[in-house]
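Action item from last week, closing it out:
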Amino acid sequence: MENYIYDSKLDLQSDPFLYEKETELDRENLINMYPAVARLIMVLIEDACDRLEYEGSPMFAELPDKENIRIIADKIYEKIKCNDNNETLRQLIEVMLCNEFYTRRCRYKRRRRLF
């Protein structure tokens, strides 16, 4: 885990690329604090989102379809499923997936404004 010190004198808003790098480092540091199972889930979620990161993807639709999120979450759940049917784990995956969608959608919108 890379440590960094935020310099309040540095105006991150004036340099969008530096701002994005700083926020991504902060996000990575927080994800590293997740419990082990949540970090495993996050790896699978990031992989699924990597495959959806293209122009016209359902991830970037104005209103993402709840059913698509459930289908992706179910696929991830099947990869890590325990012997019992754990609805709490399934819901955690959906929440983490929605959060990852949100993070990537924000990044996508910021980048589109730059060009």
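Closing note: The first helix runs from residue 16 to 31.
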